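pinned: reference chain
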Amino acid sequence: MTPADLAAMHCSVARTLDAIGDKWSLLIIRDAFYGLRRFDDLRKDLGVARNILADRLGKLVDKGVLVRRQYEERPPRYEYLLTERGRDLVGVVLAMMRWGDTWTGAGDPPVTITHTTCGHVTEPVVACSHCREELRLGELLADPIPVFAPRKPGMLDPVA
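pinned: its structure tokens
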């Protein structure tokens, strides 16, 4: 399957992967949430090769996740800012952070998140937009389920 195949799939997850689905892109987005904007700062933090960083920044700009803005004329230098589309990925990054803290951590999480509105350290949860209860596998129906696998129609079942 090629990246073009992902973009053409009738699947929101596949299309999201087409836009941001490699490790460097997600780490660039994470760093943008932390306030890093400049090429050299991103390269230093990530330890990524210049050509790879330039490629991923270009793709994120092309996908509308980042916007490139010149901040110096001589020599020309640019910073990369999250667009509305990019800022909307905060839930994706937070969900990955929570999963990593739960399943790959070796003790205390490396970063804590404080909700500035209430002042409490928080853990991200995916919640129902109606009742605000946390969404859990086994309590969800997908209609239609676009995956070809034997299961109850529409039910997202945990398999363990």
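why pinned: Residues 3-87 form a domain with the Arc Repressor Mutant, subunit A fold (CATH 1.10.10.10). The radius of gyration is 19 Å.
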